[in-house]
Amino acid sequence: MNRCIRRYFTATLAAALVAPLVAQPQQTTINPPPPAARRAPAQPRARKPKLVVLLAIDQFRYDYLTRFRPEYEAGLARLLGGGAVFTNAHYEHFPTVTAVGHSTMLSGATPSISGIVGNAWFDRETGKQVTSVSDDSTLQLGGAATRQGASPRRLLVSTVGDELKMANGKSRVIGISSKDRSAILPGGRMADGSYWFDTQTGEFVSSTYYFPALPQWVTRFNAAKHAEKYLGGSWKPFDSKSNGKLFESFGTKADPAFYSRIDRSPQGNELLVLFAEAAIDAEALGLDDYTDVLTISFSANDRIGHSLGPDSPQVRDISIQTDRIIGQLLTTLDRKVGAGQYVVVVTADHGVAPMPELMRQRKMPGGRMPEELVRAKVQEALAVKYGPGQWVVGYSGPAPYLNHALIQEKKLDLAEVQNLAADTVRQIPHIFRVYTRSQLTTGGVNEDLVDRRVRNGFHYKRSSDLFIVAEPYWLFEKGGTSHGTPFNYDSHVPLIFYGPGIKAGRYHGRVAVNDIAPTLATMLEVETPSGAMGRVLDEMFSR
Predict the structure, then answer these.
(1) I need a labelling partner for 60 at 20 to 30 A (CA). Which of 70, 420, 493, 532 fits?
(2) C-alpha pair distances (Å), 242 with each of 308, 313, 316, 318, 463
(3) Which of 96, 98, 291, 347 is catalytic?
(4) Which domains does the chain have, with CATH numbers?
(5) Which residues face 175 on adjacent strands?
(6) Are the CB atoms for 185 and 209 separated by under 8 Å?
(7) Gap between the Cα atoms of 518 and 159, Å rounded
(8) Dihedral pair phi/psi, residue 211, rounded to 5°
(9) Residue 219 catalytic?
(10) DSSP state of 541
(11) pLDDT in tens, the chain (543 residues)
(12) Helix H segments across 191-250?
């Protein structure tokens, strides 16, 4: 009997199991529970959800929920009205970038434990730049299939999906996004499949890490050429506030330029939901009493935000259109899984800074300094002091990885070299703080918000020799805008739980995105993920 039929009959015939909710052992929490939560522990849940859906909206600042709230009328409106909305949720690490955010959501771990220290970094073991998911031992499946593949092998901790699979061996875990890291990292190392959009071919692709060939349902989906239905089309504003101007014309030729335009428009998010609906059917998600996990990360929002900034009409428009797209997905879940049978968690991987040019008009601080300038200054200063050589061998953003072999060869003290490099960077205008590897290793930092988040981002084996923080609203980009700082405009993100057993309302206490993983683990009665540093948000459980 195939899995879909088996799971259907299991769901139909199985009796409801009522089990007491037992809190799992936790590590030190980032945020202590509020007094009310300590006084009133959660009551038992009648039934575990059949499906957990994580919706990550890339670069979706918390204030997008409030600024555009009057215009939300579908998915976000439903979640805001019927879910537990945490208004003060933050990331507690640095840097606040895509890979780190996505690795945190369902692991609850900071980079200091998870090992995901950035989107990319210098790997000292192999002596080359790597990404958070690059894997030389795999190949891409689909699209340009001769490319190197990707995997979650650099993630050192478990996720909620991993814990479910270790607990019962039956749960299915699927990750979907436009970006490989956003599809791979939330699901964890035991996921049944992760899929991302290839802008070279317009196909959804995966990796030999998961299976030797793409599942037939994915091959059928790609053969249908869903992206090409947008040929000759355009991104049209949902209302008249843009004076009738088109935001993007997609073109009439199915080539990489066309697929890239789709990937930075609301239509890119539509494709993700269409693919997710196919996955729900093919993988029989949510059809029995073994809870499955589906993660979807909407990457188009991030691509638009980087180019145009959070105050652009395009960001407003895609935020509102994302509300409509999520509404479509919720309708599908109601029909296929059943209303009240699934839990949705909504968050974002980071916020974003306003455009520096706009900030100057507002008489606020802000500006630009190319990250290459920072590394060049370090290289120059070390060469002047210690002689010629390749002193900087790698990077993660502006942060340099120093040549430890050369330092050892010249019999220099590593801490001394790092201090000279740090002092050099501190002389650059608008640098806020510089931390050295030696300083973070010995714990020589204070306890304010910035220091704590930098410390949480430091992984001894993988991090750079310097951690560099620019002043608020200063960017290491030549154009557009970005994120990555420990400041609140980059750390403050939405956090919404929606589903059975969750008490709707607005919760204003400070919480962390790290709290998602232990909360879900407790709801699902599985072990807390191995590196989780958050707490259980039991104030939202129905009494």
Answers:
(1) 532
(2) 14, 7, 10, 13, 44
(3) 98
(4) 3-350+487-540 (3.40.720.10), 370-428+431-470 (3.30.1360.150)
(5) 194, 295
(6) no
(7) 10
(8) -165, 160
(9) no
(10) B
(11) 445 444 443 444 333 333 333 333 333 456 655 544 433 444 444 479 999 999 999 999 999 999 999 999 999 999 999 999 999 999 999 999 999 999 999 999 999 999 999 999 999 999 999 999 999 999 999 997 678 899 999 999 999 999 999 999 999 999 999 999 999 999 999 999 999 999 999 999 999 999 999 999 999 999 999 999 999 999 988 886 655 678 999 999 999 999 999 999 999 999 999 999 999 999 999 999 899 999 999 999 999 999 999 999 999 999 999 999 999 999 999 999 999 999 999 999 999 999 999 999 999 999 999 899 999 999 999 999 999 999 999 999 999 999 999 999 999 999 999 999 999 999 999 999 999 999 998 887 878 999 999 999 999 999 999 999 999 999 999 999 999 999 999 999 999 999 999 999 999 999 999 999 999 999 999 999 999 999 999 999 976
(12) 216-223
Q: Looking at the DSSP assignment, which residues form a beta bridge with residue 496?
A: 85, 346
- Cα 277 to chain centroid distance, Å, stands at 21
- Which CA distances in Å does 444 have to 11, 145, 425, 441, 459? 55, 47, 19, 8, 15
Query: Vertex 254, ends 250 and 257: CA angle to 5°?
Result: 55
Considering only CA atoms, which of 367, 398, 422, 402 is closest in space to residue 484? 398
Radius of gyration of the chain (CA): 23
Distances (CA, A) of 410 to 392, 403, 465: 15, 11, 18
| Exposed e or buried b per residue across 180-214, where buried means at least 16 C-beta atoms within 10 angstroms of its C-beta | bbbbbbbbbbbbbbbbbbbbebbbbbbbbbbeeeb
- C-alpha 249/C-alpha 257 separation (Å) is 11
How would you classify the pairing of strands 134-141 and 203-207? antiparallel
The whole-angstrom separation of Cα 311 and Cα 440 is 36
Give the span between the Cα atoms of 37 and 35, in whole angstroms: 5
| Maximum distance among all Cα pairs of the chain, rounded to whole angstroms | 76
Choose among 47, 50, 48, 51: nearest CA to 293: 51
CA distance 338 to 334: 4
* Cβ-based neighbours of 468, under 8 Å, separated by 6 or more: 374, 397, 398, 399, 425, 431, 433, 434
259's tokens:
């697929």
